[in-house]
Design goal:
By secondary structure, this protein is of the alpha+beta class. The protein is built from seven helices and eight strands, in the order E-H-E-H-E-H-E-E-E-H-E-E-H-H-H. The chain has a six-stranded mixed sheet with strand order 7-6-1-3-2-8, with helices on one face. It has a two-stranded antiparallel sheet with strand order 4-5. A hairpin with a 2-residue loop joins strand 4 and strand 5.
Length: 181
């Protein structure tokens, strides 16, 4: 079973991590920081907006179960790629919509996915394709955050849960068995 990695930024990493945890063929989702100019950033520094990093996820997946293009289509479905440097009330470059391809093939597929998203969008898609740079895992308390804290956290209930419900309703055939049940 060959594994590939996708690195995506679509606003708060808690939101997109929760969705991709439910995708069949995904074996791991890690929240972290990428695309900035500061070594070893932490959450506070990234949230301050001065490091240049995006909150992002690194998705490990089996391409025999789900293709990279399919992951990108889900990515575009569960966040608003027309909002520049924000997702909802989360504002700043750390919440930008970006794809960090791991290969020339992924870059070509990212361009195709952006074109597909643009064909369905009512405003310009502002998602960027950025060079893959050093990945910094987020602090342990951010990993699987929604799974652990979602029912006790107001932000999660107001923002993450609706995204997860939207995904589960639209992509039932792509859910892991435990998420579907």
């Amino acid at each position: 079973m060959a594994q590939e990695v996708a690195t995506l930024a679509g606003g708060c990493f808690w939101c997109v991590e929760a969705v991709f945890d439910d995708v069949a063929g995904v074996s791991d989702v890690e929240s972290g920081y990428i695309g900035g100019h500061v070594s070893n950033p932490d959450y506070k520094a990234v949230c301050g907006g001065d490091t240049g990093h995006a909150e992002a996820i690194r998705v490990t997946f089996d391409p025999d179960v789900i293709g990279y293009g399919d992951l990108l289509d889900i990515f575009f479905h569960v966040h608003d790629p027309t909002q520049l440097n924000r997702q909802g009330a989360d504002i700043g470059t750390q919440y930008r919509s970006a794809i960090f391809p791991h290969s020339p093939e992924q870059e070509a597929e990212a361009r195709s996915a952006i074109a597909r998203a643009q064909a369905e969008a009512s405003a310009p898609v502002v998602t960027t394709i950025e060079p893959l740079s050093h990945w910094y895992p987020a602090e342990d308390y951010h990993q699987e955050y929604f799974e652990r804290e979602g029912s006790r956290n107001g932000y999660c209930m107001a923002v993450v849960a609706p995204k997860l419900q939207k995904f589960r309703k639209s992509y039932q055939a792509r859910l892991k068995r435990e998420a579907a049940g």
